Amino acid sequence: MVWVNAMWLISLVLSVTSALIATLLQQWARRYAETPKVPSEPNDRARVRSFLFSGTESYKMRLLVEIAPTLLHFSVYLFFIGLVIAFHNSTITTNKKVAIAVDVAVGVFGLAYIMLSILPCRDVRCPYRTPMSYILWYPWHTFLSFAARCLHWFLKQLHGCFVKPSLDGVITSPGQRRLVDWLNSCESAFKKHWRYLVDGFRKSVVNGAINAPEGDRKIITWLFGLLALSDKSKLRKFAASIPRHKVLDFIRPIESEKIVFRDPLLVLLRSCEVGEHTAGPDEDVRKRSLLVCLDVIHHISKTPSVPELNFVRANFANTGLMQTLWGDSDNAVRVTSRSICTLIARRVVRRDRLEEEELRWLQEVTGETSHAIFNADVEARDRMNFKSFVHGVFSSQVDDFPTGDVTSFKETLAILLDVRTDHHFDLPTSQNQLSEKVRRMQQDDPQGSYEVINRLRLIFPFVPIPFPIPINHPGSQ
Questions:
Q1: Which residue segment(s) compose the domain that 56 sits in?
Q2: Is the dihedral of CA 96, 97, 98, 102 positive or negative?
Q3: 0.90 cut: is pTM over it?
Q4: Which of 45, 117, 357, 412 could disulfide-link to 339, CB 3.0 to 4.6 Å?
Q5: Number of domains forming the structure of the chain
Q6: How far apart (Å, rounded) are the C-alpha atoms in residues 20 and 323?
């Protein structure tokens, strides 16, 4: 009974103290809001508000705001603990069922409270939290960062013992690749939890809100769908306002093997068609929105398994729209539009049976006759596709490529040659593959490929020098 009285009396003191602090905080907050209104001049009001704010920071008022509910929480816990002790005392009750019922009720409350305290430590987006969340934040992320570091060390030892890369540094075994992925995941987990530990609870929530693109994606998805149905001009302006380097952060076109932005993208692509707009400010908006649209479609065409391939080929890679873009003066538009059609063609030529519509489309993309495409095997079709892409990109080149366009061009070539896109052409095997393709291309068309290969060597110096074109003198047979 001494323990019960102690728990309940301390609980009473804490609850009354919490209520008193809450009442004082209300008075202080009212004074903080009303005092700056006394001066009539705006400058004086701003100075008073700054003066009061400085006082709240110096005297740690934010800490007192957190203490008030914490005391109330401790009060509830002490009351429940005293309640459990009281009903387990045989001098108070002889009915054990009542004690068990009290234990279950208090246990459920305690478990729910613990879950509400831990949830925001696991996910900073969680709106539920208790004063204990701020206390548990540091031991929770300390433990997880330490565990991730230990697991990373263990996997690294396994990696050194069992993973033997090939001569060119490429790991091809699925088990080895899985082990490397686990290593990368552990490294990412350690960095994430360590950052949470350094930043603290409040700053981590703010950084999570600023850096998380999920909310932006939902808003952009909704706006794209709305503007595509109502106002194409506003749709172009909205798309043009998205920076190109942030397009894939804000727009995730493929989810669950389906194209999310299918119809809005098609509306945007057709609205940006050349010939509908005059030169001027609107032309700049059209160009920037077109690049955003092409970047998203390019991302779709790069996926290992293009969803809705027939729809993408017939609409996003429609030669009626794309052929005009292939000759555009802007390198980014020209390279990206060519890459889209080439990557889609790479998927189409691998089909066992080509339909008449697909043959006509391949004929327009590659420049080869439909008869030649139909009778060729997959390897020959790949060579046709490779040649048309390289010739198409360099035949209209006037200025040097910017760095971003060179990267996009290399990435498309790597996909065409089944080379790992993260290495591009830094490894000897991939360089040999590209050199062999270029050599075959020149053998098929020595005169037409001479200038193209010379321009290609500006990007890939390891490509063999093209054979000189024989000069036919007058009178020679």
A1: 2-94
A2: positive
A3: no
A4: 412
A5: 3
A6: 76
